[in-house]
Amino acid sequence: MNTFGEKLRKLRKEKGLTIRKLGELSGVAHSYLSQVETGKRGIPKVETLEKIAAGLNIPSIDLLVQAGYIDPEEYVKMKNERDDIEESIARQKQKPYDLDFLLLSSHPLYYQDRLLTKEEISKIKSLIDIVLKD
Predict the structure, then answer these.
(1) DSSP secondary structure letters along 39-59
(2) Does pLDDT of 128 surpass 60?
(3) Among 44, 127, 129, 132, which lies 20 to 30 A Cα-Cα from 76?
(4) 68-127: per-residue pLDDT in tens?
């Protein structure tokens, strides 16, 4: 099984960086980076991982997952949720809100910071149908 140091070395080499260059780019001593890669040092603190990620020009969350600070399954779940939200926002920017679509969708709906139940959503739809009836 790969240790964090081995994973870090692989990422660094994929970026075509020497330990000294990564040290310059991240502000983390190259000797410390070498010790992490060889397993002589444990997993760096979050602040140090953020610096290393900046030096590697990758999202810091990627290193936090590799280091075990964030559970990989939880990360995938968070990423999927974020992707869904971003996709929803992009769709909303393309066209106006379709109230009927929102009321019939399985997405959670809120009113004044309170999650609406399916029954409440159904009642709201019925009221709208009555008010907007020709």
Answers:
(1) TSS-PPPHHHHHHHHHHHTS-
(2) yes
(3) 44
(4) 998 888 888 888 888 888 887 777 666 666 788 888 887 788 888 888 898 999 999 999
Per-residue pLDDT band for 1 (boundaries 50, 70, 90) equals very low
Place of tokens 């260059």: 21
Output the CA torsion sign for 68, 70, 71, 72.
negative
pTM given for the model: 0.59
Q: Biggest alpha carbon distance in the chain? A: 77
- C-alpha 19/C-alpha 113 separation (Å) is 49
- DSSP 8-state assignment for residue 114: E
- With CA atoms as reference, report the closest residue to 64 among 20, 2, 18, 4: 4
Q: By the 8 A CB rule, do 41 and 35 touch?
A: yes
3-class secondary structure, 30: helix
